[in-house]
Amino acid sequence: MRYLYTLAMFLATPLLVLRLLARGVRSRPYHRRWPERFGFFDPPGFIGSLWVHAVSVGEVNAAEPLIKALRRDYPNAPLVITTVTPTGTARVHQLFGDSVFHVYLPYDLPFAVGRFLKRIRPRLALIVETEIWPNLYFACRRRGIPLMIVNARLSERSLRGYKPLRGLARSALRCVRVIAAQSRTDAARYRLLGADPQQILVTGNMKFDMPIPDGAVAKGAVMRSHWGPRRPVWMAASTHEGEELAVLEAHLQVLHRLPDALLLLAPRHPERFRVVEQAVRSLGFTVATHSSDDVPSPSHQVFVIDAMGQLMPFFAATEVAFVGGSLVPIGGHNVLEPAALSVPVLVGPHTFNFEEITHSLIQQGGAERVADADRLGPDVLKLLLDAAKRARMGQAAQQVFERERGAVQRIMRLIDTALQE
C-alpha cells in the first residue's frame, strides 16, 4: 500500500510543481522558497534539534505555549518549526523571529523527506494536531527519531477521509511513540483509525494554555476610548467566503436598532482582505481598515482588520464575538481567544473542527449556536441589548477556559520522558 501511495505522490509531482509556480505568481516570497518543498535548503548546521510541525496559523497559535515551554526547558536545543502555508510561516516569524529555524515541510516523497531529516537532524519530532504522512513517519522510525502527535485532533470528516487508506494510516501510526489527544472523542477516533490504544493518552487541548498577549486588554480599552466607549461593538472573526455577506446583512439589522453600532470584521485569509474591504464599501457602509487607519473613528460603521495575529486586542474591545468558518462547512475556528477575555461567543452550525471545546462552552453557557445566517443579526442584537446576559456568558466562557488549562504541562512530561531515554 505504501509503494502505491509513493507512486501516486511521484505521479502527482508535476502538478505540485505547477501549483507552486502558480502560487508564486501571487506571492514572490513563496516562489523563492518552493525548493524547500523538496528538501532543498541550506543546512542550519546543528544536531539534536527539537522539531515541531504546525500546518498553518491555527496550529502555530496552538503550539505557541508548547514552543515557549521547549525554549524554557531546553534552552540549548535548536528549535525547528515547519509549516505548510504562507500564513503559518508569517505567524511563526511574528511570534518567534529568528529564535527558531523555520522551513517548509517537504512533500511526502522519500527523497525529499530524507534530505529534510538529514539537514535538520532532529532528536525529537512533534506533529501538532492532525498530519499523517506515511513516508515521513516511516523515515523517522528508520532513523530512530521519537515521533509524537501532540494536541492530536481527528474530526469525523477526517476519519471518513482516511477510510480508503486506513491500512496505510494504521501502519504509519504504529511509527508514533505517543498520541497526546485533545479529548476522549479524538482518542476514540484514533483507535478506530488503527492506532494502538497503548499509544494514546488524553492530555487536553493546548489552546487553553495560550497566553493572553501583554497589553491586549489595555490596547482594547484605548481603542474603545477612541471610537466611543459607549458604542455597541461586535466582532466577526476568521470569516470565510460566503460568510461576510451574512455578517454585513446582520450588521444592517443591528444598525436599524442601534445606529451607532460598530462591526469589527476579520477575514481569515490575507489574500481576501482587499476583496472583503471592497465588498463592504460597495454595500454603502462607512469603512476603515487596520492597515490604513489603525483604529476606527466614531463615524465608521465597519472596521476591516486586515492584519494577521492581531485579534486579541480587538476581542478585548468587543462585546460579542462571532467566530467564523462555522456558517459555512469549514468546521469553525478557535473560540478560546474571546473566551479567555470573558467575551460571549456566537458560532454557526458547523464547528466539527472544535466540537469538544464548542460543546463545552455552549453547555456551560459561555457560547450560543446560531442556527443559520438569517439568525445571526437577531442573535447579535439580542446580546448587544442585554448587558446582564453578556456578563453571565462572558464569565462562564472565561471559567471554561481557566478550568481546562494544563495540557502543555502534561505534554512536556511526555517529552521529558522521551528525551531522557
Automatic annotation (TrEMBL):
Catalytic activity field: lipid IVA (E. coli) + CMP-3-deoxy-beta-D-manno-octulosonate = alpha-Kdo-(2->6)-lipid IVA (E. coli) + CMP + H(+)
Gene Ontology molecular-function annotations: Kdo transferase activity
Pathway listed: Bacterial outer membrane biogenesis; LPS core biosynthesis
Domain 3-deoxy-D-manno-octulosonic-acid transferase N-terminal: 33-210
Listed EC numbers: 2.4.99.12
Superkingdom field: Bacteria
Localization per Swiss-Prot or TrEMBL: Cell membrane
Main location per the UniProt record: membrane
Pfam families membership: Glycos_transf_N (PF04413)
Stated family: Belongs to the glycosyltransferase group 1 family.
NCBIfam families: PRK05749.1-4
Official protein name in the record: 3-deoxy-D-manno-octulosonic acid transferase
Gene name, Swiss-Prot/TrEMBL: waaA
